[in-house]
Amino acid sequence: MRITPTHPPSPPAVARFRADGHWPATGPAELPRTSRPALSDGTSVWTYADLNDAVTRIRLALSHSGVTPEDAVLVVAPLRNQAVAAYLAVVRHGSVAVLLDHRSGRADVETACAATRPRVALATPGDADRLGLNEFCVVLPLDGGGTELAVPAAVPVDPDAAAVVVFTSGTTSTPKGVIHTVNSLRCGVANMVDALHLDARDTLFLASPVASITGVLQLESALSVGARVVLAERFSPEHAFEQVQATGATVIGGAPVIAETVFAEADRRGLTSLPLRCIALGGAMIPPTIVESANRFGVRVVRVYGSSEVPFSTSTALDAYSSDDGVALPGVDVAIGDSGELLVSGPHQFHGYLDPAHNDESFDGDRVRTGDLAELLTDHRIRITGRLKEIVIRNGKKISLAEIDLAATGLGECVAFAVPDEQTGERLALAIRGTTTAVTYQAVRDELTAVGLAVWKLPEQIVVWSGEFPRTPSGKVIRRALADETRWMGVLYGPRLSEDSGQRI
Fold first, then answer.
1. Domain ranges, residue 418
2. Number of structural domains in the chain
3. Is 476 in contact with 398 (CB distance < 8 Å)?
């Protein structure tokens, strides 16, 4: 099955991208062939020459299996050197890399295979057996299964054709297949390199799955400048400090909880410096305390904004007084729709979903509807104020969950979420993780009102959360899962709030 973009940019947009230098007519860039370290996954270290050889072997195996340009190839990818080589080989073969994390379930495989009908799959034997890949297509080992090392036949790669399919995390809906081209990825890479000041001296610590747009862009960005990439399959926020120190990582990206953990442990050990020079944070709002800690250690904090559909769209270097999500990066245009939704367009945007039916609700002309509420500030800066689907509507009033998260920073690690309510439509709940002291509703109320939260925005339910919050592989809390798991937690119910005055009933 040939995969083609279902919503490419309009001809005028493409003409503009080309005029601005964002739409070259060449295929993916070649990797350097040097003895510099390229990848490290905890079991082996590959130089750039090693990586090139691995890519060549897999490309030859694909050719021998009859895989042609534009054929779909399913890559079930652990965060290992070999999986990176498999992804690079498929794209540089001119085929479409359909990426799935190796922790996916059989239902994910069925969905991906039904939508793309891959010619072959690349996976470890264990993942192939567990997921029943042989029922869907020919399965090759992740390394292609070959030892031949020869110059593969030259394959012209259309930079505007489908190159990569990733699937949305599904935090708000059923996962959707997102189509990117070489050119759309190229723009995201260029912006990431520029915003993070990446160069060959860097060691990028990668905890995002290869099968995510974040993982793909970080990999391609680091490799494009000859940097070293450390792959952390078993990463967890609790072990972030040890892993950063052990690997000498200079750049790391992810959710704010990563930065909080690293800086807190460094403070506990009385350290005054870290190997880190830059940390890129997205997702939840970033508390000023993180920036203050980073300043003490001389670490540059970069706020980034994007999604699978429009990756790495805005960026800004934060200080303790920053309150926005940055300025649009080169080639990126932003606007605010009638509903307050942020609209984004540019050469970095995806070229539609696998299912064209999903495009209607996701595009406004050439612009991508992000699902995020935003404000345009002076100097073309934006501030994300919430998410259309991450809003509680209580008694007809909308409450941003992100706003509650930020207000509750002083209470520890907290996440706001919605609980269905027969009387009010939705009830606002707040989960507080791992507290060792007794929590009272009044104490939570006092803290939230002290930082200026309106009374009508107060949560009516407090959950004392035990263990880890449910998260996506990229570190984002899955809010919808919180309501399902509250029955196992200690719950404190506050008074109901009136419809108009916001006072107790």
1. 391-493
2. 3
3. no
